[in-house]
Amino acid sequence: KAGVTQTPRYLIKTRGQQVTLSCSPISGHRSVSWYQQTPGQGLQFLFEYFSETQRNKGNFPGRFSGRQFSNSRSEMNVSTLELGDSALYLCASSLGIGASGNTIYFGEGSWLTVV
Amino acid sequence: GESVGLHLPTLSVQEGDNSIINCAYSNSASDYFIWYKQESGKGPQFIIDIRSNMDKRQGQRVTVLLNKTVKHLSLQIAATQPGDSAVYFCAENAADKLIFGTGTRLQVFP
Description:
Helices cover about 0% and strands about 50% of the residues of chain A.
């Protein structure tokens, strides 16, 4: 069974640009969540989607957005990129919604560098 | 590969010894806890989980202990191997999202 797949794996963007990252969950998983990982802040929750609806949201500005398609695939977008957005963006999937007793599997991440 | 968290607490152990990685969590209402392993350049990999109504759970070579009184979680790895070298994160379920600890780097030397 294929794991969580994220594309692209690496990308470099310029300040002010926008970026879209893609995630394909494990087959049969309907929940997709996104996390940002940086050396300074660690792993932080961005948002969770289930059945094409955002179900939960972390404490990030509105420049960070996402969506989920009917096949459970998800994308996240960051607009007006700032240097501080440089991070590893991790997508995770699970069968059910939320994090209580629901095993969450992570992809390999997308490394974003903003210059 | 790339690395996140360059200045993490580090635990160095000799191959074959047991490792104990500790974690303090913040929310007394958290009902579910997970340990993840992250190797350089990879995403976090699920190791073991435990619900708050338990105080111990064992897996293959790993044991998680939960002490709700002091809000403390530990991961014990038996007979540590070079392949166990990685950063280990604890995570708690708070408000239906995972809150991660800062991580501990485990280094295994021969």
